[in-house]
């Protein structure tokens, strides 16, 4: 079984994963314009995110526009929006359940209840990591495929931005944190029973193996 220190480490990783997934969802640089030398005169950089597009000009001015229409967006962008939002929600729920299953805390009920809470929180975190990894991978594949397409003009070529890398790292944190929580309480404790002070003699005698009793009874007949 993982120690309480490993659970705290997993909780910190999951918290970083939730923070990173939320930040990457809101960042506007999921893909940035490729600096190929032809469009650097009018605009320094163009960025496109899940919710907003921004353009920085050489004069120092910048403008951003929101993506109001959902149906006009490509399928991979709609999927990325939905998956990232679900990832953040599930990661938050997983952290709440995992906090109840921490061994170093007093809330969350008994040992059995903490075990169930830790495993459930770990499952939520793993699913959240998967939902964060899928849109990042799909989005990166679409950007690279468009960049390598010779029919696309150089002014419309983009490269994966920093938000994609943040999403990949966040997915890894969620995976590792969820895996630690799932394996932290899978085993069952085995050891001597805790006997109350009043019935300590009866409890300890009952915990002794029955082979000794059988051996004593055989000696009586001999």
TrEMBL record:
Q: Which InterPro entries match?
A: Claudin, Claudin_CS, PMP22/EMP/MP20/Claudin
Q: Does the keyword Transport apply?
A: no
Residues in the signal sequence = 1-24
Query: Which compartments is it annotated to reside in?
Result: Cell junction, Tight junction; Cell membrane
Q: How does it sit in the membrane?
A: Multi-pass membrane protein
Segments forming a coiled coil:
none
Q: Which UniProt keywords apply?
A: Cell junction, Cell membrane, Membrane, Signal, Tight junction, Transmembrane, Transmembrane helix
State the Gene3D superfamilies in the record. 1.20.140.150
What are the recorded GO MF terms, alphabetically? structural molecule activity
* TM regions (residue ranges): 84-105, 117-140, 160-182
Task: List, alphabetically, the GO terms of the cellular component aspect.
Answer: bicellular tight junction; plasma membrane
Q: Which Pfam families match?
A: PMP22_Claudin
Q: Which family does it belong to?
A: Belongs to the claudin family.
Q: What does this protein do?
A: Claudins function as major constituents of the tight junction complexes that regulate the permeability of epithelia.
Name assigned to this protein: Claudin
Native organism: Acipenser ruthenus (Sterlet sturgeon)
């Amino acid at each position: 079984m993982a120690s309480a220190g490993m659970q705290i480490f997993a909780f910190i990783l999951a918290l970083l994963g939730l923070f990173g997934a939320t930040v990457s969802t809101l960042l506007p640089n999921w893909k940035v314009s490729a600096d190929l030398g032809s469009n650097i005169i009018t605009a320094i950089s163009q960025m496109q995110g899940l919710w907003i597009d921004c353009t920085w000009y050489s004069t120092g001015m910048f403008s951003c526009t929101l993506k109001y229409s959902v149906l006009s967006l490509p399928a991979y962008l709609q999927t990325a929006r939905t998956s990232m939002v679900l990832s953040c929600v599930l990661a938050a729920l997983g952290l709440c359940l995992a906090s109840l299953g921490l061994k170093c805390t007093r809330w969350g009920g008994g040992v059995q209840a903490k075990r169930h809470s830790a495993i459930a929180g770990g499952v939520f975190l793993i699913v959240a990591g998967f939902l964060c990894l899928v849109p990042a991978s799909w989005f990166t594949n679409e950007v690279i495929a468009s960049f390598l397409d010779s029919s696309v003009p150089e002014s419309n070529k983009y490269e994966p931005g920093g938000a994609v890398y943040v999403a990949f790292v966040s997915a890894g944190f969620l995976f590792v944190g969820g895996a630690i929580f799932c394996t932290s309480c899978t085993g069952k404790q085995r050891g001597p029973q805790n006997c109350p002070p009043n019935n300590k003699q009866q409890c300890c005698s009952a915990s002794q193996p029955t082979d000794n009793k059988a051996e004593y009874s055989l000696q009586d007949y001999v």
